[in-house]
Design goal:
Blueprint (H helix, E strand, L loop, with lengths): L11 E8 L7 E9 L5 E8 L9 E8 L10 E4 L4 E4 L4 E2 L6 E9 L4 H5 L5 E8 L10 E2 L1 H4 L4 E6 L5 E2 L5 E9 L10 E8 L7 E5 L4 E8 L5 E7 L5 E7 L7 E10 L6 E4 L5 E6 L5 E8 L8 E17 L5 E7 L7 E7 L1 H5 L5
Antiparallel strand pairs: 1-25, 2-3, 3-4, 4-5, 6-8, 7-8, 8-9, 9-10, 11-13, 12-13, 13-14, 14-15, 16-17, 17-18, 18-19, 20-21, 21-22, 22-23, 23-24, 24-25
Amino acid sequence: MRDENLSTQPWRQQEPLFISGEGGYHTYRIPALVVSVQGTLLAFAEGRKDGRGDAGEIDLILRRSFDNGKSWSATQVVVSEAGMTCGNPCPVVERESGTIWLPFCKNLAEGGETLICEGKAPRSVWITYSTDDGQTWAEPREITEAVKKPEWTWYATGPCHGIQLRGGRLVVPCDHIVGVHFDRGRDPYHSHVIYSDDRGATWQLGGKVEVGTNECAVAQLEDGSLYMNCRNYVGGKRRAVARSQDQGQTFGQFQWDETLIEPVCQASLERMPAGQLLFANPASRRRERLTVRLSPDGGHTWPVARVLHRGPAAYSDLAALPDSAICCLYERGDDHPYETLTLARFNLSWLTDEGEK
């Protein structure tokens, strides 16, 4: 590998950060990355105790790096509750105070998504926070009543990271299902956002996206508008896109992006300091071929793409680091995507290097 200190030369590193079966957890899934005001890189995940699936006892866990992802602290448990699924981490940093907010969701370990969508089990929304760079976390408090409508059954924060707008608003991407038939196969899915205008003290609902959208990621563009990129159950296995001109109060300009094919899976988004957008997803009709793309024009075109892993892969999150490196934490394996959460570190030169494609 090239010397990463030569920032103009292409370089890339990859290493497993969480290995399923180790550390007391059957499977690690659902990565989320965020960089604190102090420059600490925080890597969140779900530690699934009972199996690979979305139900069962699940903890929210964390590892931290103080050197831009080169080395990592031991795993710490952020949220754990007996008999409960605690998942869908979506951290967001409030720049003025340095507080790291962590919205997440809870349900009964034996009351998974199907029962929730049938109206037979609850799904609630919670938040915790850290004021010491992730070392300790406040007792979680419930915010369901403020951000979830009574007719919604399923609800998910993230999973990925939220953003703070230039004016100070905190925006967290989410999704929900409306209980019409109380059947997860027929009820309408929507992406939406929640936001806080008082630096995380209180939260409320923002705009939603067209039907068929699901897990999503959001970024603020140079002109102040918001770009939302959504997992999509309609439109032929391609990503859905919407935009907001009012800081997430409403979303319009809905379209399907023909370039961004997907197997119907979560994806991640990050805005670079110079304004370009990064996007990562399994760029295939199956959960494989984890690919990072770069857009110079606010997500209208994606002329740059590099594959991080050609084999099985699924969820991911992206972070732009203070030393100009880029990180992608993603689900990766040889036989199936959920064998590890692997951290890829690379620079912009590697991403744009035509000679190595």
